[in-house]
Design a protein that fits this description.
The structure holds two protein chains of two kinds.
Chain A (H helix, E strand, L loop, with lengths): L2 E3 L4 E5 L4 E3 L2 E3 L6 E7 L6 E7 L7 E2 L2 E6 L4 E6 L8 E8 L3 E3 L3 E6 L1
Parallel strand pairs in A: 2-12
Antiparallel strand pairs in A: 1-4, 3-9, 5-6, 5-10, 7-8, 8-9, 10-11, 10-12
Chain B lengths: L4 E3 L2 E4 L5 E6 L6 E8 L3 E9 L2 E5 L6 E5 L5 E5 L8 E8 L10 E2 L3 E5 L1
Parallel strand pairs in B: 2-11
Antiparallel strand pairs in B: 1-3, 3-8, 4-5, 4-9, 5-6, 7-8, 9-10, 9-11
The chains are: A mainly beta, B mainly beta.
Chain lengths: 111, 115
């Protein structure tokens, strides 16, 4: 069965600094998608970034980038130049025919 | 383009009652998925509808059901509510151009409290 593990329940970062959130997953599939979603206090789940497993190049969206290591089944999210608005729960998710979520990492951003 | 909308946003029910939640997907999106989020179990997949047919189902009891209409709007129903059904119910839509593996965009959720 596919599983997604986020081993950091909480992380904190100073404004303007860089932080990396970890995610590992387990699957026997070769073709799949990986996502990072952000859930602020409003509870709205917001797509941050997506990575296709067949692409070797790491996805980047402005200040957000991933380090995708397919052989190691690792998919970490790097947030550069952290902003107060980045404070939220971050969920890593794996998709084949449905999304399987990790348990989330709560990110705090300090001024 | 408007995002995914869910109604109602908040709901309070008592045990034994039933409830219907509604989800309108992004215009043009054909797939709608439902997820339950609780502090104890996290985010769990309920079911997915595509072209008015349930295409995939998670491990939830039969009290949880859903349907999709021809305009892709979806409803989920929970009968005989239990205290443990208190949760945030999230709906997500995707284009579903491929058989699967499409980016899902989420609505704001419906927070259900069962007393």
């Amino acid at each position: 069965a596919q599983t997604v593990t986020q081993s950091q329940p909480e992380m904190s970062v100073q404004e303007a600094e860089t932080v990396t959130l970890s995610c590992t997953y387990d699957t026997s599939e070769s073709d799949y998608y990986l996502f990072w979603y952000k859930q602020p206090p409003s509870r709205q789940m917001i797509l941050v970034i997506r990575q296709e497993a067949y692409k070797q190049q790491n996805a980047t969206e402005n200040r957000f980038s991933v380090n995708f290591q397919k052989a190691a089944k690792s998919f970490s999210l790097k947030i550069s130049d952290s902003q107060l608005g980045d404070a939220a729960m971050y969920f890593c998710a794996y998709e084949t025919d449905k999304l399987i979520f990790g348990t989330g990492t709560r990110l705090q951003v300090f001024p | 383009k408007a995002g995914v909308t869910q109604t109602p946003r908040y709901l309070i029910k008592t045990r034994g009652q039933q409830v219907t939640l509604s989800c309108s997907p992004i215009s043009g999106h054909r797939s709608v998925s439902w997820y339950q989020q609780t502090p104890g179990q996290g985010l769990q997949f309920l079911f997915e509808y595509f072209s008015e047919t349930q295409r995939n189902k998670g491990n939830f009891p039969g009290r949880f059901s859903g349907r999709q209409f021809s305009n892709s709007r979806s409803e989920m129903n929970v009968s005989t509510l239990e205290l443990g059904d208190s949760a945030l119910y999230l709906c997500a839509s995707s284009l579903a151009l491929l058989a699967d593996q499409e980016t899902q965009y989420f609505g704001p959720g419906t927070r259900l409290l069962v007393l």
